[in-house]
Design goal:
The chain has strands at about 1-5, 10-20, 20-25, 40, 45-55, 60-65, 75-80, 90, 95-105. By secondary structure, the protein is mainly β. The protein has one domain. The chain has a five-stranded antiparallel β-sheet with strand order 1-2-5-6-9, with no helix packed on it. Strands 3-4-7-8 form a four-stranded antiparallel β-sheet, with no helix packed on it.
Length: about 110
């Protein structure tokens, strides 16, 4: 989902992506892990901003900023009797990726 604004010299887009909680692979049962325990991805939302500004007829400045708020990806291991305080498994934060540049037509 997103919004965009375009004019003769520039364009701007803001995209929002929401991913709900999703079940991943089962966790191997062991001494303290009961059967029926699964790895879960937590819900998350992230924002991308893209734009371009026409400097001259042939040269434009552009930018692409992905995951602007640096939203992390949390994983949980949830089994039939896993208490809530023991469900958190890991957090992965890849950071926000920003790209800026010039492009030209010759």
């Amino acid at each position: 989902m997103g919004v965009s604004l375009g004019r003769e010299k520039f364009n701007l887009r803001v995209n929002f992506n929401y991913q709900g909680r999703a079940r991943n692979a089962p966790v191997a049962a062991g001494a303290s892990i009961e059967p029926g325990t699964y790895d879960w991805f937590a819900k998350r939302g992230f924002v991308d901003i893209l734009g371009e500004y026409q400097l001259t007829r042939r040269i434009a400045f552009y930018f692409n900023m992905r995951n602007v708020a640096d939203t992390p990806e949390d994983r949980h291991a949830i089994g039939p009797s896993t208490p809530e305080h023991a469900q958190f498994r890991s957090r992965e934060s890849a950071g926000s990726l920003w790209t800026f540049g010039l492009k030209g037509r010759f």
